[in-house]
Every structure is written in structure tokens, then in C-alpha cells.
């Protein structure tokens, strides 16, 4: 993903290697492959773009309306901007907190070789749990009454029950908790791999210089993990922004619109209200939004490590 | 649309049925009579198909039983397809433990026996996804031939998802004589539904919890204020948090709010494009629900939803529409409950909103040729089959309003004092309570379309969960609601 | 020295304490799911929590299984199997061609692949629906879910990166021996790519097994519903009972759990590889 963005403005390695004669017939294999890609990916991408300039409701003819859909999204649709804010809030919180927790978990597991296998499996288990099971089960775990499982546990600590999914303040943090729980193992495994790639001689040298573990973490571990951090934060943000199944099943966007996410709104305007043209327009705005966010993230994180 | 509300007694309601049917018949005479393209073919082919049927012992025909009510209902000219037809039908999800689903599937099975050449494939569609699915199917021109009336279909005619009922499928005379309720939702004056039964809300009381407090369902007070106080003793706290609610209504408050508006003699609609969301009655209704949390303290904002609460014995009362009886039977068969009359502000009627329903099917615009003909046969069959009308209504907590209809006085008398009723008797008891409420007056403000229900839900979340000031929320939602009324060309009701 | 040892032991204890606490948090929902699926309803919604049910029942499973689960399983497995096979083969093939061959418009075509990789699925949703349903008439078939996923732009990208690092000399040596392009691909490239391909397969497996939005829109009946859509259909009808819903979600979870416990190592290695070979 990262290289992809970098490579578009650089000559690819293939170009720098000497050409091996003429085009070989073997290359024709690309035709069916890229053909399918064209029909099922590229065509819809352009289709969506075209559709976004039309008013298209079912059983009514297409009507060209120029930029009206885009203007409507920013000026008249109160829900769309709310979904952008919600989604961004969710993504930022879940990516940052998720990275912090997985880095801590990876660091702790890495320094203690005993039981590594057990911890790794335990932390990784939610990653392979189907999203739908997660949504169903957590809906009950986060039940807002005293009978909810999490509230029952809070009861042991003499804490009052919390209205997890029914409070507009808690609903996104609750989704973040689920997001961290289900995604931590994945990022942690990446960090573990990153950690094992750091030569132990670096640490030994630093120890001789009298560095403590805190200093070693910031001077050695963190900079050397930067590719992993970059990768996980960019891919993590992109996938967090596209959250759909969990809030769709658990909260249906409520209370009011507190947990309505962009993809839910695209699905809703497109397939429940049947404003296909408008849904395409917000999908495109969303795409540009993701793209810009990714570029900002890349630039920011790169400058952090341009030493 | 001049009168703001219409309160009906049961007798008036039945009278009204005849009247609206008559008026509708007149209306359809005045306008162009709606004729489906395939319908004339049905008439032409009907005798042709029946003649060989007499020679070849294939398809039976004529009414399925000689029950006197069935005889009184009459029958219709059947059309039997010369070749096999497969119909795709979208219905509600659930299994045989739900008596209502069961009644529907048995009705389809009887139709299948009567029409061996027609196969009906029943596909369950989740309630939440129905709108999406129907829209997607219509756009793709591929989907069901028959749709189930899920109470969210008021938008379907406008979207071109369902067909209007041609007069030669079910004749205006039959509709009038049998006192079906007709629905003409669009200004094209076409008939899209005929309804045979009515449903409304009642209270469900957990007898076990009441008995623990030395109380009986009959002791339930009649006004909201007394009811709130009464429920207080049935509410239990543990360490400051609620573990048993006197009155559980989380997840259902919007419907109670709606009823409470009509209980005050008001209406939700002023005209087809203007709602009364921001009205004193609407405010009083929300305030009463807020008071149930804060003043009477018989429920908690974070407590279980009404269905889980009452089903698992964590609530003394819940207020639900009468379909809930079969849901309780399917999911919580061991729970001992009794139906109770709905409290009001005054202690008497009017009691709230009711809705027409059944026989249950709508023919989709996707049905064509033989499938369209067969779909109308299913429609006719279930509009004429008395047993289906009764079973479908009673299992879903509906009172049949057609003529003839069951002898309700006898039926209610039989179950009135049964201490430990069977599930079927319990359903009859709920109908008796509902019938009494009809006597006290109930309102039919029209079908509720899905987007409106969504708006109610958001209002409920804004006021009850987010605890925003009622005035502010009502002003905001009045605007949203009226905009939606204007955009959807939404039909309210002929008599509202 | 002793000071050092005690602090060391203290930190070691603290680390393990934290790790165990973390593991407890991660595993608790699974424990809750399992006990709830076998609890009797009376012991389900309780305060305080009943940790060890006094009575165990499998009735919820019996009822949940009844709801056409075998068909959902079959559909999910069929879709995943076909998609994964195609993803693995086409990604390797296209990746190989992009990495080691020269042809006209190579860069433009590769940029096209990259572009499709970065567009969120929500953008494709509506036109894709028209392509699959109106043009190809595939609504409510497994093909509706299989065809759009056959080619993985991410896979092509990943494999191109991976294959680029294979030395040209190996290919040239085989070619001098008279091997055809297809033989080079199947006997040299594919075996060398095995770790990357298994990583890709696992990555896509998790993704396709979980996919919800698209199957939700294109499936109407049990003959084509996949597990996630099927279980939601079962779990969200009119006020379904608690234990039953949880039992149904255990049925979705269980095969994956077993699969994971068997292929644990491959899973973890696969993720590391996709993550680091970007």
C-alpha cells in the first residue's frame, strides 16, 4: 500500500532492468485477469463517478444534475457530515489506541519468552472470529442494564452500570473497544515480527552505554519499528474508516445518528432510500476523503522518521 | 382531511368498513377502473382450464370446506395453469414455534393442495432488511412474485413495487359485502390492499411477578398516573441499579407515544403535508414516558428492552401490540402472562391507535405471465378462504372484521375466567381485551411507512435516551417529518 | 546485584501479570459466549453473573442448527474455496508478468491495478450491483459473490513485489534449458512464492468469510446465503431469544476456531509476511 503510493511517482524497478527482447505471448495471460478486473472493479469505479452527477431514483429516468449531489451532501444533508465526523472519530480513536495496546502487548510478550505461544494465540483469537459473531455477542456483553456482562463485571468493582451502546457519548468508544479487541492480535503479530527483526546487538551496545529500557525503547525500538508503524497505521485507518457490519448489526446507527458511519449512510441512501446517484456522490466524497487522509498520514509519519 | 381525529367504537368501525368499501366502489366507478394487463386473460382462460380439469382428475376446485362461514363467504372462479408454475414469496422470518408463521405456512400448504400445479417457495426475509431487499429486487427486475405485508409497505405503491388489485381478481361487490377494508394510498385511486382484520396495543402482565406482590392482573389501574404508582411496588433495585422493572417499554416507547396522542383525542396528522409532532398532546405523551423513568421510577433508561424484560421475568408489565402474544409463545413459552386493558390519561377511552392487516399478501410488479396469474390465484384463495382469515388473524392477535366473522361474544365468554389458559385461550383473552378497547374508541391514522417509523425511533432516542429537552426535539422533528410528508406524497388515510 | 535481581523479578512478575490480565480480557467474551450458549434461560440474564451454569442444555444448538445452517456453511465454503484458488493463481500469474516481462502499456496497466486497490468497496457497490445483477443476471447465486472477488488487485500488487526479488538468473537458467514460460511459472515461481501465497490466501480467507455488505445485498434466499448473512437472518427476527442467538453465533465461530487452532502457525506467519512485504 505504501509502496504503491510511493511508486506511482518513481520509475519502477522493472523499467531499470534491461528489457528482455520483444513482448512474449505469455503476457497475454494478463488479458483475462485484467479483463475481469476491468469489469468488476474499474468499470464500477467509473460508473459510480458518472452516476454521481445524476439524480437516479428507481423507475425514474436518469436526470443530469451536475454537481447538485455534491452540493447537497455538504450543505443540506445533516446526516452525511455527521457520519464523516463519527467515522473519523472512530478511526482515529481505534487506530491510535489499537496501536498503543498492540505495541505494549508485543513488547511485553517479546521480552518474556515463556508462554509466548499461549499469549500470542489468546490475543490473536478474536482476529479470526467472524465479524457477525462479534457483533451479536458484544451486543449482549455491552447490554446497558445491570444484567449486561460488562456491567456485571463492573458490579464487582462497585461501579455503576454504564449505558454502553445507548449513550451518544459512549457508543463510539464502545465500538472502539470492540475494534481494539478484535484487531489487536493482528497488529500485535506484525509488531512482534518487527521486534524480532531488530538485531539484539543494538540493545547490547546501548546497555553498555548505560541506557535504561525506556530510553532504549525510544532510541532503538520505536525508530526501527517505523515501517511497521507506518504500515499498520495506514492500513488500519483505511479499514477502520470502512466500518460497516458491527454498527449495522449492533446499533443501526443510533442513538439518533451517534454511531452512523459513512458506509452505512451510503448503503442507506442507495439501497433503502434508493437515491443511487446521491449515494454514488457521497461514496466518491468518501473516497477522496480516505485518499487525502492517507496522504496526510504518510507525509506526517514519513517526516517523523526522516533522519 | 378536515377532521383532526376519528374515534371509532367497534360498532362504528364495522359500520365504517361497509361505508368506506362502498365509497371506494363508487370512487373506482368514477375513475378509470384499474385493470391489470393479464387479468382479462384470466377470465378467458378460466373456463378453458376448468373444463379439462373436470375430465382429468387433476386440480380440485371450489371452496375447500362446507363450513357455514365459508359457504357464506362464497368462492370465486378458479384459474388453473396448464403447466407447472413456481411462485417466489417473501415472508417474515421465524420457525414453526411461532403460531403466526405456522398459520401462514399452513395456509400456503392448503393452497398448494388446492392448486397442485402451483409451487410456492417461501423465503424468509429479515424485517430490518426488507426495504433494502425489495428496492434492490425492483431495481434488478428480479425477485419475489408475492410480498408479505410487513406493516412497512406504505411506500411500495409509490415505488412501483406492488400491483394494484384488478376488479376482476376480487370484485368490488365481494369486498363490499364481506366488509373488507380497502386501501387506496395514491392519488391514482387504485386499490392496493384489502384488509380483513384489526390490531392494537394492550398491556401484557407477568402474572408470577404480580402474584409475588399479592396482586392480580385485574387490579391494574386504569390511568397512567395510578398505573405509574402501582408499578412502583413492582420495581426492584439492587445496589442502586434496577433489576426488575414495573413497566418495561425500552425499544417500544415510540408506539406508546403515538397511542398517547390519540388517547388525548388528538391526531398526529393535520393534513397530508403537515404533522402535529410539535403539539401539546405530543409533548404530554413524551413527558409521561420521561416521568415513568424519573418521577414514577418504574423503568430505567438502561434497562432491558421490553421483550427481553417481560419474557425473562424481569418486568411486571409491557405495552405491546397484540402480535406480541405469538412472539412470547415462540420465544418464552413458559412465561405466565395475562392481557390487561391499556391505561389512559382519563381512565377511559379512547385507547390509542389501531391498524388494519391481513389477509397478508401483495402481488409484486415482478410477477409476470403465468406467475402473475398464479399470484392472483393465491391472493384470491386467501381472500376467500375463511379458515385462513381466521387463523392468520387470531394467531397474530388480530380481530377479524369481515362479515361473517367468528362469534366473538361467545368466544370471549368462554375464555374470560380461565385461570391457567392454553396459549390459544390466552390469545383469545388478548383479543377480548382489545375488543373492549375498540368499544372505548381507537384511531386509525393510516399506514406507517418505514421512513416514518425510523423518524419516530430517532425522536425516541433523542428524548428518552439522550434526554434532550422535549420542546427542542419536537420542533426539530416537526420540520423533518413535514419535509418527509411533502417529499413522499405519503397517504394518510381517507377518513383521517 | 541483589537489588537488580529483585527489580528484575518484580518486573517479570508485573509483565506476566499484565499479560495474563490481557489474555483474560481477550478470552472472556469467548467464555461468556460458550457458557451462554449452553445455559438455561433462567440463568442467563442474572445479576450477579452466573459463571458456572448449574444445568447444561444443548437445546439451543439443536434449534439454531435447524435453521438451514448446513447450507450456509456449504455456500460460505464454496465461495471461499473458489475465490481463494483464483486469487492465488491469478495473483501469482499477473504478479509474475508484471515483475518479469516487458510489454506495451505496462505502467498504465499497473497503475490501473493500484487504483482499483485503493478504492473503497462502498464506491463500487452500486454500479457493481447493476453489472452483476442487471447485466449478468446473477442475483441470488453464489456467482454473484464469487465473480467480483476472483481477481485481487492487492494480491497482484503483493506478488509483483515478491516476485521482483526473485533473481532473474534463476529464470534465465531455466529458459536456457528450454523451459516454456508456463513451466517456469509453475515449477519455479509458484514454489518460490508459497509463503507469500499462503499469506495471501489467509488474508483473503478472513476477508471473504467475514464479508457481509455485498452478500447481504445480492442474496435473497437460503440457497445462496453465506454464513454471516444467514446467521443475522436467524438472529434478528422478531425478538429472538438470547441463548439461541448466542448459540447460533457459536455455530459460526466454531469451525473457524478449529481451523485456526490447526493452522495457527501459518496464520501468524502469513500475516507477518503480508504485513512486511508491502
How does this structure look, described?
- The complex is a heterotrimer of chains A (307), B (496) and C (278).
- Chain A is mainly alpha-helical and 307 residues long.
- Chain A is built from 15 helices and 2 strands.
- In chain A, helix 5 runs parallel beside helix 9 (171-196) and helix 12 packs antiparallel against helix 15.
- Chain A is globular, with a radius of gyration of 24 Å.
- The relative contact order of chain A is 0.13.
- Chain B has 19 helices and 18 strands.
- In chain B, helix 4 (99-114) links the parallel strand 1 and strand 2 (118-124).
- Chain B is of the alpha/beta class and 496 residues long.
- A 5-stranded mixed β-sheet of chain B has the order 8-9-12-7-13. In chain B, strands 2-1-3-16 form a 4-stranded mixed β-sheet, covered by helices on one side. In chain B, strands 15-6-17 form a 3-stranded antiparallel β-sheet.
- In chain C, helix 2 crosses helix 13 (242-276) and helix 4 (106-118) packs across helix 7 (153-164).
- Chain C is built from 13 helices and no strands.
- Chain C has 278 residues and is mainly α.
- Helix content of chain C is 75%, strand content 0%.
- Chains in contact: A-B, A-C, B-C.
- At the A-C interface, helix 1, helix 2, helix 3, helix 5 and helix 6 of A face helix 1, helix 3, helix 4, helix 5 and helix 7 of C.
| Low-pLDDT sequence parts of chain A | 1-19
* Oligomerization status of the protein chains: heterotrimer
Overall 3D geometry of chain A?
A: globular
**Based on helices, strands and strand pairing, what is the structural class of chain C?**
mainly alpha
Q: Mean pLDDT across all residues of chain C, rounded?
A: 86
As a whole number of angstroms, the C-alpha radius of gyration of chain A is: 24 Å
Amino acid at each position: 500500500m505504501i509502496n504503491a503510493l510511493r511508486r506511482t511517482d518513481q520509475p519502477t524497478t522493472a523499467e531499470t532492468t534491461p528489457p528482455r527482447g520483444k513482448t512474449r505471448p505469455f503476457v497475454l495471460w494478463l488479458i483475462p485477469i485484467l479483463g475481469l478486473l476491468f469489469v468488476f472493479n474499474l468499470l464500477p469505479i467509473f460508473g459510480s463517478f458518472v452516476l454521481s452527477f445524476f439524480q437516479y431514483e428507481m423507475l425514474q429516468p436518469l436526470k443530469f444534475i451536475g454537481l447538485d449531489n455534491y452540493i447537497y451532501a455538504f450543505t443540506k444533508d445533516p446526516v452525511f457530515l455527521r457520519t464523516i465526523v463519527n467515522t473519523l472519530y472512530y478511526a482515529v480513536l481505534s487506530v491510535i489506541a489499537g496501536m498503543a495496546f498492540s505495541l505494549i502487548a508485543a513488547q511485553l510478550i517479546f521480552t518474556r519468552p515463556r508462554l509466548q505461544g499461549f499469549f500470542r494465540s489468546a490475543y490473536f483469537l478474536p482476529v479470526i472470529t467472524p465479524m457477525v459473531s462479534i457483533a451479536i455477542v458484544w451486543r449482549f456483553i455491552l447490554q446497558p442494564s445491570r444484567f449486561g456482562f460488562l456491567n456485571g463485571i463492573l458490579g464487582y468493582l462497585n461501579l455503576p452500570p454504564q449505558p454502553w451502546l445507548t449513550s451518544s457519548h459512549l457508543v463510539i468508544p464502545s465500538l472502539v473497544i470492540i475494534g481494539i479487541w478484535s484487531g489487536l492480535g493482528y497488529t500485535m503479530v506484525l509488531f512482534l515480527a518487527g521486534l524480532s527483526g531488530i538485531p539484539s546487538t543494538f540493545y547490547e551496545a546501548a546497555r553498555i552505554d548505560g541506557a535504561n529500557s525506556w530510553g532504549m525503547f525510544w532510541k532503538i525500538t520505536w525508530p526501527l519499528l517505523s515501517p511497521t508503524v507506518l504500515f499498520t497505521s495506514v492500513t488500519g485507518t483505511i479499514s477502520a474508516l470502512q466500518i460497516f457490519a458491527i454498527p449495522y448489526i449492533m446499533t443501526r446507527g443510533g442513538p439518533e445518528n451517534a454511531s452512523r458511519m459513512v458506509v452505512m449512510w451510503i448503503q442507506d441512501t442507495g439501497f433503502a432510500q434508493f437515491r443511487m446517484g446521491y449515494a454514488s456522490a457521497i461514496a466518491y466524497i468518501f473516497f477522496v476523503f480516505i485518499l487525502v487522509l492517507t496522504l496526510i498520514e504518510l507525509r506526517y509519519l514519513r517526516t517523523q522518521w526522516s533522519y | 382531511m378536515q377532521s383532526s381525529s376519528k374515534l371509532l367504537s367497534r360498532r362504528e368501525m364495522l359500520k365504517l368498513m361497509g361505508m368506506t368499501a362502498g365509497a371506494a366502489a363508487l370512487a373506482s366507478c368514477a375513475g378509470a377502473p384499474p385493470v391489470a394487463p393479464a387479468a382479462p386473460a384470466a377470465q378467458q382462460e378460466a373456463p378453458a382450464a376448468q373444463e379439462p380439469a373436470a375430465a382429468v382428475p387433476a386440480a380440485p376446485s371450489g371452496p375447500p370446506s362446507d363450513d357455514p362461514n365459508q359457504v357464506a363467504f362464497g368462492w370465486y372462479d378458479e384459474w388453473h395453469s396448464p403447466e407447472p408454475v413456481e411462485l417466489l414469496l417473501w415472508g417474515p422470518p421465524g420457525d414453526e414455534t411461532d403460531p403466526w408463521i405456522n398459520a401462514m405456512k399452513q395456509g400456503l400448504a392448503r393452497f398448494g393442495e388446492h392448486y397442485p400445479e402451483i409451487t410456492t417457495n417461501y423465503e424468509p426475509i429479515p424485517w430490518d432488511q426488507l426495504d433494502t431487499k425489495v428496492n434492490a429486487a425492483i431495481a434488478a427486475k428480479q425477485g419475489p412474485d408475492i410480498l408479505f405485508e410487513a406493516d412497512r409497505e406504505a411506500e411500495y405503491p409509490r415505488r412501483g413495487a406492488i400491483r394494484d388489485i384488478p376488479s376482476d381478481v376480487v370484485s368490488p361487490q365481494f369486498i363490499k359485502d364481506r366488509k373488507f377494508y380497502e386501501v387506496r394510498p395514491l392519488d391514482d385511486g387504485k386499490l392496493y390492499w384489502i384488509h380483513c382484520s384489526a390490531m392494537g396495543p394492550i398491556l401484557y402482565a407477568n402474572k408470577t411477578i404480580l402474584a409475588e406482590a399479592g396482586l392480580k392482573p385485574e387490579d391494574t389501574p386504569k390511568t397512567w398516573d395510578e398505573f405509574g404508582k402501582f408499578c412502583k411496588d413492582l420495581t426492584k433495585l439492587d445496589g442502586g441499579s434496577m433489576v426488575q422493572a414495573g413497566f418495561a417499554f425500552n425499544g417500544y416507547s415510540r408506539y406508546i407515544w403515538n397511542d398517547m396522542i390519540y388517547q388525548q383525542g388528538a391526531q398526529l396528522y393535520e393534513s397530508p403535508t403537515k404533522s402535529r409532532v410539535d403539539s401539546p398532546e405530543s409533548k404530554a405523551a413524551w413527558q409521561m414516558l420521561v416521568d415513568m423513568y424519573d418521577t414514577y421510577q418504574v423503568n430505567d433508561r438502561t434497562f432491558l428492552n421490553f421483550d427481553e424484560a417481560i419474557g425473562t421475568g424481569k418486568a411486571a408489565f409491557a405495552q405491546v401490540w397484540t402480535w406480541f402474544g405469538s412472539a412470547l409463545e415462540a420465544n418464552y413459552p413458559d412465561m405466565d402472562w395475562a392481557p390487561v386493558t391499556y391505561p389512559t390519561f382519563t381512565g377511559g377511552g379512547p385507547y390509542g391507535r389501531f391498524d388494519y392487516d391481513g389477509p397478508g399478501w401483495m402481488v409484486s410488479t415482478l410477477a409476470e405471465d403465468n406467475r402473475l396469474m398464479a399470484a392472483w390465484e393465491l391472493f384470491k384463495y386467501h381472500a376467500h378462504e375463511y379458515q385462513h382469515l381466521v387463523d392468520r388473524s387470531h394467531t397474530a392477535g388480530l380481530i377479524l372484521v369481515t362479515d361473517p366473522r367468528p362469534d366473538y361474544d361467545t368466544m370471549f365468554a368462554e375464555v374470560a375466567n380461565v385461570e391457567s389458559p392454553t396459549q390459544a385461550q390466552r390469545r383469545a383473552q388478548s383479543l377480548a381485551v382489545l375488543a373492549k378497547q375498540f368499544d372505548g374508541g381507537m384511531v386509525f391514522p393510516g399506514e406507517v411507512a418505514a421512513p416514518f417509523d425510523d423518524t419516530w425511533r430517532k425522536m425516541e432516542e433523542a428524548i428518552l435516551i439522550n434526554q434532550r429537552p422535549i420542546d427542542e426535539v419536537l420542533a426539530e422533528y416537526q420540520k423533518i417529518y413535514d419535509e418527509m410528508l411533502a417529499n413522499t406524497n405519503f397517504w394518510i388515510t381517507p377518513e383521517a | 546485584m541483589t537489588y537488580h535481581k529483585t527489580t528484575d523479578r518484580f518486573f517479570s512478575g508485573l509483565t506476566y501479570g499484565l499479560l495474563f490480565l490481557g489474555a483474560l480480557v481477550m478470552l472472556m467474551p469467548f467464555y461468556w459466549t460458550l457458557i451462554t450458549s449452553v445455559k438455561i434461560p433462567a440463568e442467563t440474564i442474572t445479576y450477579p453473573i452466573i459463571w458456572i451454569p448449574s444445568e447444561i442444555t444443548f437445546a439451543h444448538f439443536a434449534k439454531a442448527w435447524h435453521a438451514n445452517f448446513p447450507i450456509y456453511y456449504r455456500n460460505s465454503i464454496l465461495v471461499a474455496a473458489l475465490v481463494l484458488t483464483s486469487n492465488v493463481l491469478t495473483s501469482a500469474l499477473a504478479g509474475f508478468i508484471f515483475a518479469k516481462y516487458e510489454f506495451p502499456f505496462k505502467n498504465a496497466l499497473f497503475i490501473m491495478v493500484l487504483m482499483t486497490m485503493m478504492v473503497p468497496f462502498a464506491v463500487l457497490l452500486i454500479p457493481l450491483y447493476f453489472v452483476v445483477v442487471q447485466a449478468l443476471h446473477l442475483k441470488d447465486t453464489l456467482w454473484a459473490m464469487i465473480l467480483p472477488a476472483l481477481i485481487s488487485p492487492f494480491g497482484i500488487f503483493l506478488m509483483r513485489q515478491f516476485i521482483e526479488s526473485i533473481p532473474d538468473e534463476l529464470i534465465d537458467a531455466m529458459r536456457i534449458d528450454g523451459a516454456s514460460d508456463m513451466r517456469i511459472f509453475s515449477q519455479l515461481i509458484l514454489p518460490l512464492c508459497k509463503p507469500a501465497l499462503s499469506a495471501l490466501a489467509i488474508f483473503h480467507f478472513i476477508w471473504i468469510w467475514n464479508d457481509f455488505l455485498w452478500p447481504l445485498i445480492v442474496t435473497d434466499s437460503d440457497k445462496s446465503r453465506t454464513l454471516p448473512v444467514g446467521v443475522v437472518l436467524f438472529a434478528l427476527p422478531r425478538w429472538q431469544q438470547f441463548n439461541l442467538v448466542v448459540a447460533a453465533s457459536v455455530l459460526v465461530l466454531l469451525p473457524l476456531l478449529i481451523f485456526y487452532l490447526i493452522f495457527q502457525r501459518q496464520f501468524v506467519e502469513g500475516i507477518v509476511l503480508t504485513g512486511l512485504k508491502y
